[in-house]
Amino acid sequence: MKRLNRVFALLMMLALAVPVYAQNAAAAPVPNKGDTAWMIVATLLVVMMAAPGLGLFYGGMVRAKNMLSVLMQTLVVFCLLGVLWAVYGYSIAFTEGNAFFGGLSKAFLAGITPDSTASTFSKGVVIPEFIYVSFQLTFAAITPALIIGGIAERAKFSAVLLFMVLWFTFSYLPIAHMVWYWPGPDAYTSAAAGDKATATAGFLFQKGAIDFAGGTVVHINAGIAALIGAVMIGKRVGFGRETMAPHNLTMTMVGGSLLWVGWFGFNVGSNLEASGAATLAFITTLLATCAATVSWTLVEWVLKKKPSMLGAVSGAIAGLVVITPACGYVGPMGAIVMGLIAGGVCYWGVNGLKRLLGVDDSLDVFGVHCLGGVVGALLTGVFASPRLGGTGVYDYVANKVGVYDMFGQLIAQCWGVGISLVWSAVVSIVAFKLVDMTIGLRIEQEGEREGLDVSSHGESAYHS
Question: Which UniProt keywords are given for this protein, alphabetically ordered (predicted)?
Answer without folding.
Answer: Ammonia transport, Cell membrane, Membrane, Plasmid, Signal, Transmembrane, Transmembrane helix, Transport
